[in-house]
Amino acid sequence: MSLRLQVGFASIAIGLLVLGLKMASYWLTGSVALLSDALETIVNVASSCAAVFAIWFASKPADSNHPYGHDKAEYFAAVLVGVMIVLAAISIFYAAWQGFVAPKPISFSATGIGVNLLAAVINGLWAWFLVGFGRKNRSPALSADGRHLYTDVASSLGVVAGVLLVFATGWRWLDSLLALLVGLTVLWSGWNVMKESVSGLMDEAASEDVLEKIRGLISEHGDGALEAHDLRTRLAGRITFVDFHLVVPGAMTVETAHDICDRIEEAIASDIPGARITIHVEPEHKAKHSGIVVL
């Protein structure tokens, strides 16, 4: 089992633990705001399950029907996570509305508040790990899961502070207002996750920093060529597809031109893990005199 899959299964286990803690907090206090916080955690568990499936599917090798691999599956999972987050927000809005029209008494429980804070700490530590791991290993599904957990932590802390204020003032309507604010925060989080995932599905180019690095590697390791132009990139999960035109002297042999391409490909692949490079070799008269000058 790959390390990414192990992390995905760990997310499911931690999500179930946090869900149990938050439901216990709600049962101890009866707060609709704490219930909304628990409802959001159900989405965390569901999104972790979706991430595990996507990571497993994305790790499948390329085949005749998918010659470029299955890495984009993680973007679909991230979109699904965003949809789940939106559905969670709707359920939270419903719970908040019920709290306004038919408010229920809530009771102070130091244990209940403490349990919710413990859940927030666990979520915060795991979110920090997930975002870092997802970025390092180019996993959109795990990164989306981690960013959503950060939102969960922020809303949990806000809910706890608000519930304490309800206990102090006796304003029960404030409990439902807090639930409504949690719902809005969750909705915003879902929108951001879906927006970033759609960018990946639309073959978004690599960042300018990565493009500049690729230009430098071509210039440094393309000795013997004249220039490179029409550099294009696109991202697909862990994979960065790179293609460009390499101009060489017209009298250069195919073998020599091939050696230059191999040298450039090795340099890019070693510096950008997961890079897939395609180079189109052109004779000197195809030069545009506006691309990457080889040193």
TrEMBL record:
The chain crosses the membrane at residues 7-29, 41-59, 75-96, 108-129, 149-171. GO terms for biological process: intracellular zinc ion homeostasis. Pfam families: Cation_efflux, ZT_dimer. It comes from the Bacteria. It is a multi-pass membrane protein. Gene3D superfamilies: Cation efflux protein transmembrane domain, Cation efflux protein, cytoplasmic domain. Residues 207-284 form the Cation efflux protein cytoplasmic domain. It is found in: Cell membrane. NCBIfam families: CDF. This is Protein p34. It comes from Roseibium hamelinense.
